[in-house]
Amino acid sequence: MNKINTAVFISGKGSNLKNLIKFSFKKKSPIKITLIYSNKQNAKGLTFAKQYKIKKKIHSFRNKKKTEKILLLTLKKNKIKLICLAGFMKILSKEFIKKFNGKILNIHPSLLPKYKGLNTHKKILDNKEKFSGCTVHYVSPSLDSGKIILQRKIKINKDETYKSLAKRVLKEEHKLYPEALKKIFN
Ligand code: GRF
């Protein structure tokens, strides 16, 4: 099977990136990761580019239009057919989403459509929700609103803190992203 050329976009520590790289090496993985992009020079996740010998690109998003133009050219040059956003903290423009000749996926730490945007764990605990989880979805022009591909749900514990919830949800994210990719492509 020809694996799909994939770029992963990050801004932070990149635990989902590392997890996706490890998954991509498996025979049953439909993807291979050939590009890592970060809008932040000091994103911890960039160390995985070196570790796993994957090409990396860094461009700040200060001039969004210019950066997206460069990105589209880079994606084309590297024959990227899929973008996985993984802790990428910038919002891609409608034009970028339209012009990119492939699919764009995102992982979000809540049971969408509930709790879009930032500080999800805090909002969930403040609202005394009984359940939380994570969602992999297609990226559409409006934030965290594209078609849902797959979700995992967990029960919130009595003594749950933001930190413990974030940790537990992240563990589920690491299972969910590969599952979602297999669901779409296998
Ligand atoms: C994850 O919780 C992801 O859902 C959110 O940002 C976090 C990124 O974590 N969008 P990591 O950088 O993959 O470790």
Describe this structure in words.
By secondary structure, this protein is an alpha/beta fold. It has six helices and seven strands. It has a seven-stranded mixed β-sheet with strand order 3-2-1-4-5-6-7, covered by helices on one side. Helix 1 runs parallel beside helix 6. The structure holds 5-O-phosphono-beta-D-ribofuranosylamine (GRF). The site of 5-O-phosphono-beta-D-ribofuranosylamine (GRF) has 14 residues, from helix 1, strand 5 and helix 6.
What is the CA–CA distance across the termini?
A: 10 Å
Described by strand count, sense and barrel closure, the largest sheet is: 7 strands, mixed
**Total number of strands:** 7
Strand order of the largest sheet: 3-2-1-4-5-6-7
Shape: globular
- What is the ordering of alpha helices and beta strands? EHEHEHEHEHEEH
- Work out the strand percent: 15-25%
Please give the count of helices: 6
Q: Low-confidence stretches at least 5 residues in length (pLDDT < 50)?
A: none
Rounded to the nearest angstrom, the radius of gyration is: 16 Å
The averaged pLDDT comes out at 97
Helix-strand category: alpha/beta
Helix content: 25-40%
Tell me which ligands are bound.
Answer: 5-O-phosphono-beta-D-ribofuranosylamine
